[in-house]
Amino acid sequence: MKIAPAAFALVVALAAGSPPQARAFHHRSSPPAASAPRRAAFDAARLRNLPPSTSSRPQSWALSAKKTKTASSSSSSSSSRSGTAALSTLESWSKNVAGIQSGGVRVASGNSVADSDGSAGGLGLVSDRELKGGDVLVQVPTDLALQVESKGGSFDRDVEELLGGRDARRAVRDAPWWVRMSLKVNAVDKVSNKLGSKDGGGVDAAAWLDSLPRKFDTPFHWSDEQLDELQYGYMADSVRWQRNKWKAQYDKISGGGKLSYDDFVWGCETARSRCFSGPYSGTGAFDPKPYALTLFLIAAYVGGGLGTIEQAANGAALVLCGTVLKDFVFPKFLGSRKYVLCPYIDMANHDGTGLARGNVAFEYFADGYSLSVLDGGSSPIVRPQSEVFISYGPRSNDQLLQYYGFVERGDPHDVYVLPPLREWDVAALERATGRTIMPGRLEKLERAGLLGRDRNAAAAAANDGDDDDDDNANAAGGVVITRTAGLDPAVLQALRALMSTDDEWNDAGESVGNFAAEESGGPANERAAMIAARTAMESELSHKPTTRGQDEELLKKMEMSASANVGGAEERLAVAFRAEKKRVLEEAIAGIRV
Known about the structure:
This is Rubisco LSMT substrate-binding domain-containing protein. The protein contains 20 helices and 18 strands. By secondary structure, it is an alpha+beta fold. The protein folds into 3 domains: about 5-30 and about 285-330, no CATH class; about 60-280 and about 340-395, set domain protein methyltransferase, domain 1; about 405-590, set domain protein methyltransferase, domain 2. The strands form 6 sheets. The protein has a 5-stranded antiparallel β-sheet with strand order 1-14-15-7-4, with no helix packed on it. Helix 8 packs across helix 15 and helix 13 crosses helix 18 (about 525-540).
Protein backbone atom coordinates (compact mmCIF):
# COMPACT_ATOMS: atom_id res chain seq x y z
CA MET A 1 0.00 0.00 0.00
CA LYS A 2 1.31 3.44 -0.93
CA ILE A 3 0.65 6.54 1.18
CA ALA A 4 0.74 9.95 -0.53
CA PRO A 5 3.26 12.50 0.78
CA ALA A 6 0.49 14.90 1.83
CA ALA A 7 -1.22 12.18 3.85
CA PHE A 8 2.12 11.24 5.36
CA ALA A 9 2.65 14.86 6.41
CA LEU A 10 -0.79 14.96 8.02
CA VAL A 11 -0.08 11.75 9.94
CA VAL A 12 3.16 13.25 11.26
CA ALA A 13 1.50 16.50 12.27
CA LEU A 14 -1.40 14.80 14.03
CA ALA A 15 0.83 12.31 15.80
CA ALA A 16 3.00 15.15 17.03
CA GLY A 17 -0.01 17.01 18.36
CA SER A 18 0.57 19.97 16.02
CA PRO A 19 -2.08 20.43 13.31
CA PRO A 20 -0.82 22.26 10.26
CA GLN A 21 -2.90 25.38 10.91
CA ALA A 22 -1.82 28.08 13.36
CA ARG A 23 -2.89 27.59 16.97
CA ALA A 24 -2.31 29.10 20.38
CA PHE A 25 1.20 30.00 21.37
CA HIS A 26 2.08 27.78 24.34
CA HIS A 27 5.34 27.83 26.26
CA ARG A 28 7.15 24.98 27.91
CA SER A 29 9.37 24.97 30.95
CA SER A 30 12.82 24.23 29.61
CA PRO A 31 15.37 26.81 30.84
CA PRO A 32 17.27 29.07 28.47
CA ALA A 33 20.55 27.74 27.17
CA ALA A 34 23.64 29.24 28.72
CA SER A 35 25.17 29.99 25.37
CA ALA A 36 23.74 32.57 22.98
CA PRO A 37 21.13 30.70 20.93
CA ARG A 38 19.92 31.51 17.49
CA ARG A 39 17.02 33.95 17.71
CA ALA A 40 14.09 34.60 15.41
CA ALA A 41 12.66 38.01 14.59
CA PHE A 42 9.79 39.02 16.91
CA ASP A 43 8.45 42.08 15.12
CA ALA A 44 6.87 44.64 17.41
CA ALA A 45 5.58 47.12 14.89
CA ARG A 46 2.07 47.50 16.34
CA LEU A 47 2.92 48.70 19.84
CA ARG A 48 5.37 51.53 19.13
CA ASN A 49 8.04 49.13 19.70
CA LEU A 50 11.56 48.43 20.63
CA PRO A 51 13.94 49.01 17.72
CA PRO A 52 14.86 45.89 15.77
CA SER A 53 17.99 44.17 16.96
CA THR A 54 21.15 45.14 15.15
CA SER A 55 23.23 42.69 17.09
CA SER A 56 25.87 40.67 15.32
CA ARG A 57 24.10 37.68 16.80
CA PRO A 58 21.31 36.22 14.66
CA GLN A 59 18.19 38.34 14.46
CA SER A 60 15.79 38.36 17.41
CA TRP A 61 12.14 39.03 18.03
CA ALA A 62 12.08 42.58 19.36
CA LEU A 63 9.36 43.09 21.95
CA SER A 64 7.68 46.35 22.73
CA ALA A 65 7.77 47.27 26.38
CA LYS A 66 5.22 48.92 28.60
CA LYS A 67 6.33 49.53 32.17
CA THR A 68 5.90 52.24 34.73
CA LYS A 69 8.92 54.02 36.13
CA THR A 70 9.46 51.59 39.00
CA ALA A 71 10.08 53.41 42.22
CA SER A 72 11.26 52.46 45.65
CA SER A 73 9.11 53.22 48.65
CA SER A 74 11.29 56.15 49.62
CA SER A 75 11.28 58.13 46.42
CA SER A 76 8.88 58.76 43.83
CA SER A 77 6.01 58.32 41.54
CA SER A 78 4.87 54.79 42.41
CA SER A 79 5.11 53.25 45.82
CA SER A 80 6.28 49.68 46.32
CA ARG A 81 6.80 47.24 49.15
CA SER A 82 10.46 46.98 48.29
CA GLY A 83 13.57 48.32 49.95
CA THR A 84 17.20 47.28 50.13
CA ALA A 85 16.29 43.95 51.73
CA ALA A 86 13.63 43.31 49.11
CA LEU A 87 16.09 44.00 46.30
CA SER A 88 18.57 41.58 47.80
CA THR A 89 15.79 39.01 48.11
CA LEU A 90 14.76 39.57 44.49
CA GLU A 91 18.34 39.04 43.27
CA SER A 92 18.72 35.90 45.37
CA TRP A 93 15.32 34.58 44.25
CA SER A 94 16.02 35.19 40.57
CA LYS A 95 19.30 33.25 40.61
CA ASN A 96 18.76 30.56 43.23
CA VAL A 97 15.04 29.84 43.02
CA ALA A 98 13.61 31.02 39.70
CA GLY A 99 16.48 29.90 37.47
CA ILE A 100 16.86 33.33 35.88
CA GLN A 101 20.32 33.78 34.39
CA SER A 102 21.77 37.27 34.67
CA GLY A 103 25.21 38.76 34.26
CA GLY A 104 26.35 42.32 33.83
CA VAL A 105 23.32 43.96 35.45
CA ARG A 106 21.58 44.04 38.79
CA VAL A 107 18.42 45.61 40.17
CA ALA A 108 19.35 48.81 41.96
CA SER A 109 17.68 51.81 43.59
CA GLY A 110 18.54 55.29 44.81
CA ASN A 111 21.57 57.10 43.39
CA SER A 112 22.26 54.39 40.83
CA VAL A 113 18.98 55.03 39.02
CA ALA A 114 17.98 58.31 37.40
CA ASP A 115 14.39 59.48 37.63
CA SER A 116 12.70 61.02 34.61
CA ASP A 117 13.59 64.48 35.90
CA GLY A 118 17.27 63.55 36.11
CA SER A 119 17.28 63.18 39.88
CA ALA A 120 18.23 60.02 41.70
CA GLY A 121 15.59 57.57 42.81
CA GLY A 122 13.45 54.62 41.81
CA LEU A 123 14.34 51.09 40.76
CA GLY A 124 16.01 49.95 37.57
CA LEU A 125 18.68 47.73 36.02
CA VAL A 126 22.23 48.99 36.50
CA SER A 127 25.38 47.63 34.88
CA ASP A 128 28.17 46.26 37.06
CA ARG A 129 30.73 46.15 34.22
CA GLU A 130 31.32 47.55 30.74
CA LEU A 131 28.68 46.26 28.33
CA LYS A 132 29.17 45.82 24.59
CA GLY A 133 26.80 45.21 21.73
CA GLY A 134 25.39 41.68 21.68
CA ASP A 135 26.02 41.00 25.38
CA VAL A 136 23.22 38.88 26.83
CA LEU A 137 22.35 40.32 30.25
CA VAL A 138 19.28 38.39 31.39
CA GLN A 139 17.58 35.16 30.33
CA VAL A 140 14.23 34.22 31.87
CA PRO A 141 12.52 30.83 31.32
CA THR A 142 9.26 31.29 29.46
CA ASP A 143 7.45 29.28 32.11
CA LEU A 144 8.00 32.08 34.65
CA ALA A 145 6.32 34.74 32.54
CA LEU A 146 2.63 35.59 32.71
CA GLN A 147 1.19 35.62 29.20
CA VAL A 148 -2.10 36.37 27.48
CA GLU A 149 -3.15 36.64 23.86
CA SER A 150 -4.79 39.65 22.33
CA LYS A 151 -7.81 37.60 21.28
CA GLY A 152 -9.38 35.17 23.71
CA GLY A 153 -7.44 32.17 24.93
CA SER A 154 -7.88 30.01 27.99
CA PHE A 155 -7.41 31.04 31.60
CA ASP A 156 -6.16 29.17 34.63
CA ARG A 157 -8.18 27.60 37.41
CA ASP A 158 -6.62 30.08 39.84
CA VAL A 159 -8.16 32.90 37.79
CA GLU A 160 -11.59 31.24 37.90
CA GLU A 161 -11.53 31.50 41.70
CA LEU A 162 -11.61 35.29 41.35
CA LEU A 163 -14.59 35.41 38.98
CA GLY A 164 -18.28 35.74 39.70
CA GLY A 165 -19.76 32.90 37.68
CA ARG A 166 -20.41 31.55 34.20
CA ASP A 167 -21.29 34.95 32.73
CA ALA A 168 -18.08 36.38 34.16
CA ARG A 169 -16.02 33.59 32.59
CA ARG A 170 -17.58 34.31 29.20
CA ALA A 171 -16.89 38.02 29.66
CA VAL A 172 -13.23 37.32 30.40
CA ARG A 173 -12.75 35.51 27.10
CA ASP A 174 -13.99 38.60 25.23
CA ALA A 175 -12.22 41.13 27.46
CA PRO A 176 -9.22 43.27 26.42
CA TRP A 177 -5.84 41.71 27.07
CA TRP A 178 -5.08 43.93 30.08
CA VAL A 179 -8.21 42.68 31.87
CA ARG A 180 -7.08 39.08 31.48
CA MET A 181 -3.54 39.97 32.54
CA SER A 182 -4.92 41.75 35.61
CA LEU A 183 -6.68 38.53 36.57
CA LYS A 184 -3.48 36.52 36.09
CA VAL A 185 -1.44 38.91 38.23
CA ASN A 186 -4.08 38.93 40.95
CA ALA A 187 -4.33 35.13 40.84
CA VAL A 188 -0.60 34.84 41.49
CA ASP A 189 -0.79 37.50 44.20
CA LYS A 190 -3.88 36.26 46.03
CA VAL A 191 -4.44 32.60 45.13
CA SER A 192 -1.41 30.57 44.11
CA ASN A 193 1.55 32.79 45.05
CA LYS A 194 3.50 30.84 42.43
CA LEU A 195 4.92 31.34 38.96
CA GLY A 196 5.56 28.53 36.52
CA SER A 197 4.06 25.06 36.33
CA LYS A 198 0.30 24.80 36.71
CA ASP A 199 0.34 21.24 38.11
CA GLY A 200 0.78 22.30 41.70
CA GLY A 201 4.48 22.98 41.35
CA GLY A 202 6.03 26.22 40.26
CA VAL A 203 8.23 28.81 41.90
CA ASP A 204 7.33 30.83 44.98
CA ALA A 205 6.58 34.30 43.62
CA ALA A 206 6.69 36.31 46.86
CA ALA A 207 10.05 37.96 46.13
CA TRP A 208 8.90 39.13 42.70
CA LEU A 209 5.50 40.27 44.00
CA ASP A 210 7.25 42.33 46.68
CA SER A 211 9.16 44.16 43.94
CA LEU A 212 5.98 45.35 42.19
CA PRO A 213 4.53 48.80 42.85
CA ARG A 214 1.46 48.57 45.07
CA LYS A 215 0.23 52.07 44.30
CA PHE A 216 0.48 54.14 41.14
CA ASP A 217 0.45 57.92 40.92
CA THR A 218 -1.05 57.90 37.44
CA PRO A 219 -3.79 60.43 36.60
CA PHE A 220 -6.34 57.61 36.95
CA HIS A 221 -6.20 58.29 40.71
CA TRP A 222 -6.14 62.08 40.55
CA SER A 223 -8.97 64.37 41.55
CA ASP A 224 -10.68 66.63 39.01
CA GLU A 225 -8.76 69.56 40.48
CA GLN A 226 -5.46 67.75 39.94
CA LEU A 227 -6.43 66.90 36.35
CA ASP A 228 -7.21 70.58 35.78
CA GLU A 229 -3.63 71.39 36.81
CA LEU A 230 -2.48 69.63 33.62
CA GLN A 231 -4.06 72.51 31.65
CA TYR A 232 -4.81 70.00 28.90
CA GLY A 233 -8.41 69.03 28.25
CA TYR A 234 -7.46 66.11 26.06
CA MET A 235 -5.74 64.29 28.94
CA ALA A 236 -8.61 64.94 31.33
CA ASP A 237 -11.07 63.46 28.82
CA SER A 238 -8.81 60.46 28.18
CA VAL A 239 -8.57 59.69 31.90
CA ARG A 240 -12.34 59.95 32.41
CA TRP A 241 -12.96 57.61 29.48
CA GLN A 242 -10.33 55.25 30.89
CA ARG A 243 -12.10 55.17 34.26
CA ASN A 244 -15.46 54.45 32.65
CA LYS A 245 -14.00 51.68 30.50
CA TRP A 246 -12.19 49.98 33.37
CA LYS A 247 -15.24 50.11 35.64
CA ALA A 248 -17.42 48.65 32.89
CA GLN A 249 -14.94 45.80 32.37
CA TYR A 250 -14.84 45.10 36.11
CA ASP A 251 -18.63 44.99 36.34
CA LYS A 252 -18.70 42.34 33.62
CA ILE A 253 -16.33 39.98 35.42
CA SER A 254 -17.02 40.61 39.11
CA GLY A 255 -20.60 39.47 39.76
CA GLY A 256 -20.04 38.25 43.31
CA GLY A 257 -16.46 37.17 42.73
CA LYS A 258 -13.57 37.57 45.16
CA LEU A 259 -11.72 40.35 43.31
CA SER A 260 -12.19 43.90 44.59
CA TYR A 261 -12.27 46.84 42.20
CA ASP A 262 -9.10 48.31 43.71
CA ASP A 263 -7.25 45.03 43.18
CA PHE A 264 -8.59 44.82 39.63
CA VAL A 265 -7.29 48.35 38.90
CA TRP A 266 -3.92 47.48 40.45
CA GLY A 267 -3.67 44.48 38.14
CA CYS A 268 -4.66 46.54 35.10
CA GLU A 269 -2.06 49.20 35.87
CA THR A 270 0.57 46.55 36.45
CA ALA A 271 -0.30 44.99 33.11
CA ARG A 272 -0.47 48.24 31.17
CA SER A 273 2.81 49.52 32.55
CA ARG A 274 5.04 46.43 32.75
CA CYS A 275 4.12 44.11 29.86
CA PHE A 276 5.95 43.40 26.62
CA SER A 277 4.20 42.38 23.45
CA GLY A 278 4.86 40.91 20.04
CA PRO A 279 2.80 39.60 17.10
CA TYR A 280 3.45 35.91 17.66
CA SER A 281 0.73 33.26 17.96
CA GLY A 282 2.38 30.00 17.01
CA THR A 283 3.32 27.12 19.28
CA GLY A 284 5.90 29.14 21.16
CA ALA A 285 9.41 27.84 21.56
CA PHE A 286 11.10 25.31 19.31
CA ASP A 287 9.78 21.79 19.96
CA PRO A 288 11.98 18.96 18.61
CA LYS A 289 9.36 16.23 19.12
CA PRO A 290 7.56 16.63 15.75
CA TYR A 291 10.89 16.45 13.93
CA ALA A 292 12.01 13.36 15.84
CA LEU A 293 8.66 11.75 15.09
CA THR A 294 9.03 12.72 11.44
CA LEU A 295 12.38 10.91 11.23
CA PHE A 296 10.88 7.84 12.90
CA LEU A 297 7.92 7.77 10.50
CA ILE A 298 10.21 8.26 7.50
CA ALA A 299 12.14 5.18 8.56
CA ALA A 300 8.93 3.20 9.07
CA TYR A 301 7.44 4.54 5.84
CA VAL A 302 10.42 3.53 3.71
CA GLY A 303 11.42 0.44 5.68
CA GLY A 304 7.88 -0.91 5.62
CA GLY A 305 7.64 -0.55 1.87
CA LEU A 306 4.82 1.97 2.10
CA GLY A 307 6.48 4.33 -0.36
CA THR A 308 9.73 5.60 -1.81
CA ILE A 309 12.35 7.75 -0.12
CA GLU A 310 11.38 10.61 -2.45
CA GLN A 311 7.77 10.45 -1.28
CA ALA A 312 8.89 10.37 2.34
CA ALA A 313 11.14 13.38 1.71
CA ASN A 314 8.22 15.25 0.15
CA GLY A 315 6.08 14.50 3.18
CA ALA A 316 8.82 15.64 5.55
CA ALA A 317 9.18 18.85 3.54
CA LEU A 318 5.46 19.49 3.97
CA VAL A 319 5.83 19.05 7.72
CA LEU A 320 8.68 21.57 7.76
CA CYS A 321 6.76 24.03 5.60
CA GLY A 322 3.70 23.64 7.81
CA THR A 323 5.77 24.45 10.89
CA VAL A 324 7.29 27.51 9.27
CA LEU A 325 3.87 28.73 8.14
CA LYS A 326 2.34 28.07 11.56
CA ASP A 327 5.09 29.68 13.63
CA PHE A 328 6.28 32.52 11.41
CA VAL A 329 3.90 33.30 8.53
CA PHE A 330 0.33 32.86 9.76
CA PRO A 331 0.85 34.99 12.91
CA LYS A 332 1.72 37.95 10.70
CA PHE A 333 -1.61 37.69 8.90
CA LEU A 334 -3.80 36.71 11.84
CA GLY A 335 -2.88 39.85 13.78
CA SER A 336 -2.86 38.05 17.13
CA ARG A 337 -0.42 39.33 19.73
CA LYS A 338 1.17 37.92 22.84
CA TYR A 339 1.43 40.11 25.96
CA VAL A 340 4.06 39.09 28.47
CA LEU A 341 4.82 40.12 32.04
CA CYS A 342 8.35 38.85 32.62
CA PRO A 343 9.96 38.87 36.09
CA TYR A 344 13.29 40.71 36.45
CA ILE A 345 13.25 42.06 32.89
CA ASP A 346 10.23 44.10 33.96
CA MET A 347 12.62 46.19 36.07
CA ALA A 348 14.16 47.84 33.00
CA ASN A 349 13.21 51.51 32.66
CA HIS A 350 12.44 53.57 29.57
CA ASP A 351 14.39 56.21 27.70
CA GLY A 352 12.98 57.67 24.51
CA THR A 353 15.69 60.22 23.82
CA GLY A 354 18.30 57.88 22.36
CA LEU A 355 19.91 56.42 25.48
CA ALA A 356 18.10 53.07 25.33
CA ARG A 357 20.63 50.29 24.78
CA GLY A 358 18.68 47.25 25.95
CA ASN A 359 16.80 44.91 23.63
CA VAL A 360 14.13 42.48 24.86
CA ALA A 361 13.53 39.37 22.76
CA PHE A 362 11.86 35.97 22.73
CA GLU A 363 14.40 33.17 22.35
CA TYR A 364 12.68 30.71 20.01
CA PHE A 365 15.17 27.85 20.39
CA ALA A 366 15.93 28.43 24.08
CA ASP A 367 12.29 28.86 25.17
CA GLY A 368 12.83 32.03 27.14
CA TYR A 369 12.95 35.81 27.14
CA SER A 370 16.20 37.72 27.09
CA LEU A 371 17.56 41.20 27.64
CA SER A 372 20.64 41.98 25.59
CA VAL A 373 22.63 45.03 24.50
CA LEU A 374 21.93 46.45 21.07
CA ASP A 375 24.89 46.13 18.73
CA GLY A 376 27.09 49.20 18.59
CA GLY A 377 30.49 47.90 17.58
CA SER A 378 33.31 46.66 19.76
CA SER A 379 33.55 49.73 22.00
CA PRO A 380 31.61 49.70 25.29
CA ILE A 381 28.04 50.92 24.93
CA VAL A 382 27.16 51.02 28.63
CA ARG A 383 29.68 52.08 31.26
CA PRO A 384 29.91 50.43 34.68
CA GLN A 385 27.36 51.64 37.24
CA SER A 386 25.16 53.10 34.49
CA GLU A 387 21.48 52.37 34.12
CA VAL A 388 20.53 50.06 31.25
CA PHE A 389 17.48 51.53 29.54
CA ILE A 390 15.12 49.98 27.06
CA SER A 391 12.67 51.83 24.82
CA TYR A 392 8.94 51.37 25.22
CA GLY A 393 8.69 52.65 21.68
CA PRO A 394 7.87 56.12 20.32
CA ARG A 395 5.52 57.12 23.14
CA SER A 396 4.25 60.62 23.79
CA ASN A 397 4.13 62.17 27.24
CA ASP A 398 0.36 61.70 27.08
CA GLN A 399 0.91 57.94 27.08
CA LEU A 400 3.82 58.00 29.51
CA LEU A 401 1.91 59.98 32.12
CA GLN A 402 -1.45 58.27 31.74
CA TYR A 403 -0.21 54.69 31.91
CA TYR A 404 3.31 54.83 33.35
CA GLY A 405 3.21 57.75 35.75
CA PHE A 406 6.15 59.83 34.56
CA VAL A 407 7.04 62.61 32.13
CA GLU A 408 10.06 62.63 29.82
CA ARG A 409 11.70 65.97 29.15
CA GLY A 410 12.39 66.67 25.51
CA ASP A 411 10.44 63.59 24.42
CA PRO A 412 10.99 63.50 20.63
CA HIS A 413 7.71 61.59 20.21
CA ASP A 414 5.58 64.06 22.12
CA VAL A 415 2.32 65.37 20.69
CA TYR A 416 -0.30 67.99 21.42
CA VAL A 417 -3.96 67.24 20.70
CA LEU A 418 -6.09 70.30 20.03
CA PRO A 419 -9.90 70.11 20.17
CA PRO A 420 -11.50 68.79 16.96
CA LEU A 421 -12.10 71.27 14.15
CA ARG A 422 -15.81 71.44 14.96
CA GLU A 423 -14.91 73.19 18.25
CA TRP A 424 -12.59 75.81 16.76
CA ASP A 425 -13.53 79.50 16.94
CA VAL A 426 -14.64 80.17 13.36
CA ALA A 427 -15.01 83.91 13.94
CA ALA A 428 -11.40 84.12 15.16
CA LEU A 429 -10.19 82.33 12.03
CA GLU A 430 -12.13 84.75 9.83
CA ARG A 431 -10.67 87.77 11.61
CA ALA A 432 -7.11 86.45 11.39
CA THR A 433 -7.29 85.54 7.70
CA GLY A 434 -9.51 88.38 6.51
CA ARG A 435 -11.71 85.79 4.82
CA THR A 436 -15.27 84.64 5.26
CA ILE A 437 -16.00 80.95 5.56
CA MET A 438 -18.46 80.31 2.78
CA PRO A 439 -21.76 78.46 3.23
CA GLY A 440 -21.54 74.70 2.81
CA ARG A 441 -17.84 74.33 3.61
CA LEU A 442 -18.39 72.93 7.11
CA GLU A 443 -20.99 70.50 5.80
CA LYS A 444 -18.51 69.27 3.19
CA LEU A 445 -15.86 68.73 5.86
CA GLU A 446 -18.39 66.95 8.05
CA ARG A 447 -19.21 64.51 5.27
CA ALA A 448 -15.48 63.99 4.69
CA GLY A 449 -15.03 63.11 8.37
CA LEU A 450 -12.59 65.97 8.99
CA LEU A 451 -14.45 67.83 11.75
CA GLY A 452 -14.07 65.11 14.39
CA ARG A 453 -16.85 63.76 16.63
CA ASP A 454 -19.05 65.62 19.04
CA ARG A 455 -18.64 64.86 22.75
CA ASN A 456 -21.44 62.30 22.99
CA ALA A 457 -20.27 60.34 19.95
CA ALA A 458 -16.68 60.44 21.20
CA ALA A 459 -17.69 59.09 24.61
CA ALA A 460 -19.65 56.26 22.99
CA ALA A 461 -16.71 55.37 20.73
CA ALA A 462 -14.29 55.35 23.65
CA ASN A 463 -16.49 53.15 25.83
CA ASP A 464 -17.66 50.72 23.16
CA GLY A 465 -14.41 50.14 21.29
CA ASP A 466 -12.20 47.10 21.88
CA ASP A 467 -9.00 48.98 22.51
CA ASP A 468 -5.54 47.49 22.31
CA ASP A 469 -3.24 50.10 23.69
CA ASP A 470 -4.54 53.54 24.51
CA ASP A 471 -8.15 53.19 25.61
CA ASN A 472 -9.37 54.67 22.36
CA ALA A 473 -7.26 57.78 22.80
CA ASN A 474 -8.38 60.71 20.67
CA ALA A 475 -11.83 59.21 20.26
CA ALA A 476 -13.12 62.75 19.60
CA GLY A 477 -10.91 63.11 16.54
CA GLY A 478 -8.87 65.96 17.98
CA VAL A 479 -6.30 67.79 15.87
CA VAL A 480 -2.91 66.13 16.41
CA ILE A 481 0.33 68.08 16.41
CA THR A 482 3.53 66.02 16.56
CA ARG A 483 6.92 67.27 17.59
CA THR A 484 8.53 65.81 14.48
CA ALA A 485 5.99 66.68 11.77
CA GLY A 486 3.88 69.49 13.18
CA LEU A 487 0.21 69.74 12.25
CA ASP A 488 -1.58 66.70 10.85
CA PRO A 489 -1.61 66.99 7.01
CA ALA A 490 -5.29 66.01 6.97
CA VAL A 491 -6.08 69.06 9.08
CA LEU A 492 -4.16 71.34 6.72
CA GLN A 493 -6.19 69.85 3.89
CA ALA A 494 -9.39 70.65 5.78
CA LEU A 495 -8.23 74.21 6.48
CA ARG A 496 -7.41 74.82 2.82
CA ALA A 497 -10.93 73.78 1.91
CA LEU A 498 -12.51 75.64 4.83
CA MET A 499 -10.77 78.96 4.12
CA SER A 500 -11.11 78.79 0.34
CA THR A 501 -12.85 81.51 -1.63
CA ASP A 502 -15.55 80.63 -4.11
CA ASP A 503 -13.05 80.87 -6.97
CA GLU A 504 -10.54 78.59 -5.18
CA TRP A 505 -13.33 76.16 -4.34
CA ASN A 506 -14.56 76.06 -7.91
CA ASP A 507 -11.02 75.62 -9.26
CA ALA A 508 -10.69 72.57 -6.98
CA GLY A 509 -13.80 71.05 -8.47
CA GLU A 510 -15.73 71.67 -5.23
CA SER A 511 -13.93 68.67 -3.73
CA VAL A 512 -12.20 68.58 -0.36
CA GLY A 513 -9.92 65.86 -1.70
CA ASN A 514 -8.37 68.25 -4.20
CA PHE A 515 -6.92 70.37 -1.36
CA ALA A 516 -4.60 67.59 -0.11
CA ALA A 517 -1.34 68.82 -1.64
CA GLU A 518 0.63 71.86 -0.51
CA GLU A 519 -0.56 74.99 -2.34
CA SER A 520 -3.19 72.92 -4.13
CA GLY A 521 -5.55 75.86 -3.67
CA GLY A 522 -2.94 78.40 -4.69
CA PRO A 523 -0.43 80.51 -2.69
CA ALA A 524 -3.07 82.80 -1.19
CA ASN A 525 -5.16 79.85 -0.06
CA GLU A 526 -2.11 78.16 1.47
CA ARG A 527 -1.28 81.32 3.41
CA ALA A 528 -4.84 81.56 4.72
CA ALA A 529 -4.76 77.92 5.86
CA MET A 530 -1.45 78.44 7.65
CA ILE A 531 -2.70 81.59 9.36
CA ALA A 532 -5.81 79.72 10.49
CA ALA A 533 -3.68 76.90 11.93
CA ARG A 534 -1.36 79.31 13.70
CA THR A 535 -4.31 81.29 15.08
CA ALA A 536 -5.85 78.17 16.60
CA MET A 537 -2.57 77.13 18.22
CA GLU A 538 -1.85 80.63 19.54
CA SER A 539 -5.37 80.80 20.96
CA GLU A 540 -4.87 77.46 22.70
CA LEU A 541 -1.60 78.64 24.20
CA SER A 542 -2.91 82.05 25.27
CA HIS A 543 -5.77 80.52 27.24
CA LYS A 544 -3.41 78.60 29.53
CA PRO A 545 -3.42 79.90 33.12
CA THR A 546 0.40 79.91 33.19
CA THR A 547 3.23 80.27 30.69
CA ARG A 548 5.91 77.68 30.04
CA GLY A 549 8.48 79.97 31.67
CA GLN A 550 6.39 80.18 34.82
CA ASP A 551 5.95 76.41 34.85
CA GLU A 552 9.66 75.75 34.50
CA GLU A 553 10.51 78.21 37.25
CA LEU A 554 7.96 76.57 39.54
CA LEU A 555 9.29 73.14 38.65
CA LYS A 556 12.83 74.16 39.59
CA LYS A 557 11.63 75.28 43.00
CA MET A 558 9.73 72.03 43.46
CA GLU A 559 12.71 69.90 42.49
CA MET A 560 15.06 71.84 44.74
CA SER A 561 12.73 71.30 47.67
CA ALA A 562 11.66 67.75 46.77
CA SER A 563 13.66 66.34 49.66
CA ALA A 564 11.58 68.53 51.97
CA ASN A 565 8.45 67.14 50.30
CA VAL A 566 7.31 70.55 49.08
CA GLY A 567 4.81 69.98 46.32
CA GLY A 568 3.40 66.47 46.02
CA ALA A 569 4.35 63.98 43.33
CA GLU A 570 1.13 64.67 41.44
CA GLU A 571 1.72 68.42 41.46
CA ARG A 572 5.29 68.07 40.21
CA LEU A 573 4.17 65.70 37.46
CA ALA A 574 1.39 68.07 36.41
CA VAL A 575 3.73 71.05 36.15
CA ALA A 576 6.38 69.08 34.25
CA PHE A 577 3.74 67.70 31.90
CA ARG A 578 2.09 71.02 31.05
CA ALA A 579 5.47 72.65 30.46
CA GLU A 580 6.31 69.96 27.90
CA LYS A 581 2.91 70.35 26.20
CA LYS A 582 3.43 74.10 25.85
CA ARG A 583 6.87 73.50 24.40
CA VAL A 584 5.34 71.29 21.69
CA LEU A 585 2.80 74.00 20.85
CA GLU A 586 5.46 76.71 20.73
CA GLU A 587 7.64 74.64 18.41
CA ALA A 588 4.68 73.99 16.10
CA ILE A 589 3.79 77.68 15.99
CA ALA A 590 7.39 78.59 15.20
CA GLY A 591 7.38 76.04 12.38
CA ILE A 592 4.50 77.71 10.53
CA ARG A 593 5.71 80.16 7.92
CA VAL A 594 3.26 82.52 6.25
